[in-house]
Structures are given as structure tokens and as C-alpha cells.
Amino acid sequence: MREFARLYVALDETTATSEKVAALTAYFRAAPPEDAAWAVHFLVGRRPKRLVASSSLRAWAAAEAGIPDWLFEESYHSVGDLAETITLLLPDTGSPSEYPLSQWVEQRLLALRGQDEAVQREEMVRAWRELERRERYVWNKLITGSFRVGASARLVVRALAGASGVPEEVVAHRLMGAWDPSPDFYRRLVATDTGDADVSRPYPFYLAYPLEDDPATLGDPAEWIAEWKWDGIRSQLVRRAGKSFLWSRGEELLSGRFPEVEEAAALLPEGTVLDGELLPWLDGAPLPFAQLQRRIGRKSLSRKILAEVPVVLVAYDLLEEGGEDLRPLPLAERRRRLGALLARVPSAGRLVISAAVKAAAWEDASAARLRAREQGAEGLMLKRLSSAYGVGRRRGDWWKWKVDPLSVDAVLIYAQPGSGRRAGLYTDYTFGLRDGEGLVPFAKAYSGLTDADIRRVDAFVRRNTLEKHGPVRVVKPELVFEIAFEGIQASPRHKSGIAVRFPRMVRWRTDKRVDEADTIETLRALLDRGVEA
Predict the structure, then answer these.
(1) How far apart are the C-alpha atoms of 139 and 135, rounded to whole Å?
(2) Torsions phi, psi of 505, nearest 5?
(3) Model confidence over 252-295: pLDDT tens digits?
(4) Within 13 Å of residue 289, how many CA atoms lie on the same side as its CB?
(5) List of long-range contacts for 369-374, beta carbons under 8 Å, 24+ apart
(6) Is pTM beyond 0.70 here?
(7) 414 FRET partner, CA 20 to 30 A, in 10, 30, 439, 528?
(8) Packing angle between helix 133-144 and helix 54-65, nearest 10 degrees?
(9) Could you say which of 3.90.190.20, 2.160.20.10, 3.40.50.261, 2.40.50.140 is the CATH number of the domain covering 406-528?
(10) What are the residues whose beta carbons fall under 8 Å from the beta carbon of 179, sequence distance 6 or more?
């Protein structure tokens, strides 16, 4: 645990990519496989489900610190992070642990699962007393399920490649799919023999950069293909060894959730991997993403929901054919093979190729982009026909050109403290729209303001609080902000009757009074105009 805690601190204390990679590389070179496997597990964003209720942790920590519950809660609201609050309040009674990370995870952390509350409390207090402050902080992060550190999965891959001599693309591929953080897994991860295979494993996803410049800067439009940018679940469909595996971009195995797609997958030839988008699709057109959400997370799918929200895979790319990795081939060739493959598969429309959007000139592409919402799309994807299928997000060959967001001017009505580096500042806001003589809440937003603006809003909140409800403050309705969002939909679960997707603050409208803010009718008019997305 000591070395892993040191690594966490080293990553947290620098913003330099080279220093982060150096710290990670040094750790992986020195760590035994049983520790390195768990380190990889946590560093790439995987974590165990929360094993202890946060309410119990707060009560036990308050008792161990010898303070009343109300003082702990006030401290928590001020700090904004439970793991850090516990670490700061508990007395420093521990010393650097000689036990390795794997032992702490396997024998102490995971052993809490299924234990009664008395045993959990005893084990938690024992751990707090044994660990020194940095180790206790990491332990608390793991226990609360909030372990995050300033190193992306891509940097972890780079460090593993540097420590082992295995090419980055091989390491990235081996990290895809399902795996257990065992010593054997880690040895396979860094093995120099690159001929290994896992029949279920998808490929690392290739991601596009946002296009912010004029598309004419990309050169000759004949060298590019335009496709609709759909709003669904980016997925890979793998058909190997007589089995089908459906993976999300977040490396979640979706098998069993979309039976109509899996039935079609059974018709694919062996050794096939498709990259595409799962979309709710009815009568030849996509349904709003909210309809797909009706199916996500359901344990069982009724005939009714399958009929109302059928799902298809719109295939963008063919990554593997006949067991051959096609990623190095030009996109034009991969699409040619994809079209020929899907033409031979009687999938009943469940597997369809992503149609090219006709654009002989960039002006044509611009006009198509403006029609995107009419198609149920978010904009256009622009891909260089000569491009290979890469790993991660890289500039140059794939661009996403989204439509301009919708926006309204809304009033700040509630605020609460943020977390992490924003702890102690009021940075999480709820906005309302005018509805008659009052204001109805319609969206929460956390991003879009500069640090200077955040400090100004924080000062306003503290001076103009009308009511307090735990960490939430009801503020005097005076500040108006432009709130942008990608789409809207009717929602009986929201007080306004409308839900918006991906809301964020665009600017502080210091030039507007509250009576000049938009009304709820503005949103209803957008729905009536058919811009639901």
C-alpha cells in the first residue's frame, strides 16, 4: 500500500504528462505482479462496488474523531469529498504499512462484502488506525468508490508499454474487455509474446476530435466521407468461436440486453468485428435517446418494450474479417468490405451500414449539418478515406462536427458546493425559467464558467442566501445565464415537464434582468418544432 500511495501522491502533485508517465513507469517496473494488477485495475477506472454505506462511514469516522455528527457533516460540506474529510479529521495514529496493495485489497477491502455492520465497523476503524495519512486517504478513496487520479487510461498504457517493451497498441488491446486483476493477468498484459488471443475481446475504440474550424481547412472534400453523427451507444459487435459479444465504448459487456442485435450477430461469419452505434430505430428513422434509456438497465425485456423500442446496430466500420485485423487498411477499403459483408447477411435490418452523406463540396456538408436534427442526428462525422483505424482520440483523420447547441437564458435559483479542487466553493447550480409569476427549475449545470466568474458567483451566493437545505442554498433570483444543451424531451419526472441533455453554462448574462429571462414556453415551443433529441 505504501508504494501505491506514493504513486497516487506523485500523480496528484504534477500536471506534466512526462512526469506522470515517469512515475507510472517506475511503479510498474518495481511492483510485483499481484500489486501491479490491482494498480492497473484502479488506475484505468475500474473499482469495486461500494462495500460500506456512506452514512455508516460518516458515523464511524465522527465517533473515531471524537466529534458530534453535525460537526462532521459541516466539515464534509466544506471539504466536499468524503474520503478527504475522513482523512483530515481522524488522528494520525498509523505508520507506513508493510503490507502490499494486493493484500489490503483482497484480504481487507473485499473481505468487507457481506459482513454485518459490527464487523465492518471494526475492520474500518482498525484500518484507519493502522495506516498513515496518505495511505488512509487512498484507502478511503477505494472504500467510497471515489478513487480517481490525474492520469488517463492512455497514460497508463504508455507507462505499461515503457515498463515492459510491449507496443502500446498491444497493451491497449489486452486491456479491453473482461479481465480479473490477477498476477496471471498482469503477466499476460506485459508479455512480449504478442500472439495471444481472447475470443471476446474488442479492439480499442478510435475517437474523433471536435471540429471547430472551417471544414475547408481539411482540404479536398473528395478525400473525405461524411456520415451522420448519431446519438446512441457506441459499440463493438464481436463474432468469434461461435459466440457473439456486444461491448460498449465504456468496456461494458452488453450481451443479453439487445437480443434482436445478437440474433442478427449469429448470422455473421466467424472472426468478424463491427464498430457502430446502437440506436432505437423504428420505421426507418432513429427514436430519441430517451427511448433507448427505457431499455437500458432493465433486467427483463417485455414484448411490449421490444416492439415499441426496437434497436439496430448502425455499423461504421469493419475491424476484423475472417479473423484478420483490418484496422491498418484505409477506411475506404474497410467500408467497401463492410458493405459487401452486410449485403450477404440477412439481418432483417438489424445490422445496417452507416450511410454516407452526399457532400461534393464543403458547402454541401455545411448544408447537411444544418439538417442534422431533422434526421435525429447530432451533426456530422468527417473521416479521411485513407485513414487507418487508430487507438483513442487523435487529431487529423476523424472529426465530429456537431450542430450548434440549443440555448435559453435562465435564472440561478439554487447552489451547492462542488467537490475536489472546487470544494468549498458554490459551483453546482440549478437554473429556472419564468413560469407565470414564479420560476420553475429545469436544469442543473456545473461547467462553462471561468475560475474568476465562479468566485464572483460564490460570493453572490453567500451574500444572497434565502434558505438552507443541507448543502443546498436557495438564492435570491437575480443572476441570469445562457444555458446551452444538445436536445430536449418531454419528461413527466421533471417539475418543468421537460428534460434537457448535457446542459452547460455558455455565458453570464450580466446585461439581462430576471424579467428578461426566457419562459418555460420557450422550451415547449422547441419541442413543438420537433427538435427533440
Answers:
(1) 6
(2) -80, 130
(3) 778 778 989 999 999 999 999 999 999 999 888 888 887 888 88
(4) 18
(5) 369/401, 369/403, 370/403, 372/228, 372/229, 372/403, 373/403, 373/487, 373/531, 373/533, 374/530
(6) no
(7) 528
(8) 150
(9) 2.40.50.140
(10) 185
